[in-house]
Amino acid sequence: MSVIEVKNLTKDYGSGRGVFDVSFAVEKGEVFGFLGPNGAGKSTTIRHLMGFSKPQSGETKIFNKDTFDRYFEILKKVGYIPGEIALPQGLTGAEFLKMMQDLQGIHNKERLDYLLDYFKLSKTNLKCETKRMSLGVKRKLAIVASFMSDPDVLILDEPTSGLDIVMQEKFIDFIKAEKARGKTILLSSHIFSEVDATCDRIAIIKDGRIVSQFVADDLKHKTQKFYNVTFVNEKSCKDFVELQEKSDILKVLSFDKNKALISTNDKDINKVIDILSGFHIKEFDNVKETLQDFFMKFYKEDKEFKGI
Hints:
Blueprint: E1 4-14, E2 17-26, E3 31-35, H1 42-49, E4 57-62, E5 65-66, H2 71-74, E6 78-81, H3 93-104, H4 109-118, H5 123-127, H6 135-147, E7 153-157, H7 165-180, E8 184-189, H8 192-198, E9 201-206, E10 209-215, H9 216-220, E11 224-231, H10 234-243, E12 250-256, E13 259-265, H11 269-276, E14 281-287, H12 291-296
Parallel strand pairs: 3-8, 3-9, 6-7, 7-8
Antiparallel strand pairs: 1-2, 1-4, 4-5, 9-10, 11-13, 11-14, 12-13
């Protein structure tokens, strides 16, 4: 049974805004990446998972319990970092953490002290009123608050937003450690590096719809490979492209002047090399497809896209 389930979730706010028929599941001990630009529907999905909003249709469940109707049964076992940090005013950092401990009904001093040290929240930070804190300190305070009860499930919405590079790396290492402890984690982000470094499976969301779901290692070790071929002159390149127009061994993805980008399957690489040996080749280089490369295929028509 999946720990986190989103099934055919739809919430239509009009004008193309919202989420539409979104479905995915997260298994116990898995880190699931939810990747997309700002406004794609990540936070809307997470708000429903946290029980803050009721679906128009579909279901959101944690531990097989409906997250809207049975919110308080789930709360103590779920740690949540919101995308936008809005801390209550009039409290110091220490008072905020105490309030959250009382709400959760869990006071784990050893765990709290460890987190405060790990994320470099000093006593001076904790004495400061929340409204006077920098964005980075607020983010670290929210991280500590979400992890201090040592929950079984972690739902993280843009968790490193506002952190410096060093602290982002520390957060990634922390997530890896939590995964090793068997925690179930949903990581919503638009930062490729943290998704690539931590996630077992990844879903890409665009305009409120899931456009791809895949195992992270499948992308890293996929058998379809890409190569840049540089010919000695434009004529050789043109002759090659024309000859391979209907090939079932390789595909010419693009070409310009004396350069061509081709794709082929690992099992056919020797045949491809045999074909290329009949042409005057200057260079033949493997092009590794990154998570960002794969993601951008879904946004290639958005020429003004600046969300990532």
